[in-house]
Amino acid sequence: MDTEYYVTKKTSCKNCGGAGLIQAPIWMVYWEWYYTNNDKHPTFKSQQKWWAAQGFSDDAEIPEDQITCPDCDGEGQITTTVTLQDALCDLGETLDILVGHPH
Ligand SMILES: [Zn+2]
């Protein structure tokens, strides 16, 4: 029987940059609106209106501006299993440096 070796690969999550949190989509839309409102920052009242138009009529209902990153589940890193061979290929250059082989 053939034997296969696997190793765990951990990489920083690209979606959240390792923070585990990302800006909630509704807030991205909000900030876009906020900064493109005729170069004037919207008044508190017009902000309330905007949120109400999105279905958030009460201040308490406005969602958090950051949500758990869906890509890494808030871990900040992605853990996958790869074959040892793939890992060594990935690390090729690093390993050459470690054992002192010139390129
Ligand atoms: Zn993430």
Describe the structure.
It is elongated and about 70 Å long. With 103 residues, the chain is of the alpha+beta class. The mean pLDDT is 88. The two termini are 36 Å apart. The protein has three helices and four strands; from the N terminus they run E-E-H-H-E-E-H. The strands form two sheets. Strands 1-4 form a two-stranded antiparallel ribbon. A two-stranded antiparallel ribbon has the order 2-3.
List the helices and strands and how they pair.
Blueprint: E1 6-12, E2 21-23, H1 25-35, H2 44-53, E3 66-68, E4 77-83, H3 84-99
Antiparallel strand pairs: 1-4, 2-3
The chain binds zinc ion (ZN).
Largest sheet: 2 strands, antiparallel
Strand content: 15-25%
> Could you tell me the mean pLDDT?
88
Could you state the order of secondary-structure elements as H and E? Answer: EEHHEEH
Strand order of the largest sheet: 1-4
Bound molecules: zinc ion
Derived from helix and strand composition plus strand pairing, the structural class reads alpha+beta
Number of helices: 3
Q: Round the Cα radius of gyration to an integer and report it.
A: 23 Å
Question: Which descriptor suits the 3D outline?
Answer: elongated
Query: Which spans of ≥5 residues are poorly predicted at pLDDT below 50?
Result: none
Helix content: 25-40%
> Termini separation (Å)?
36 Å
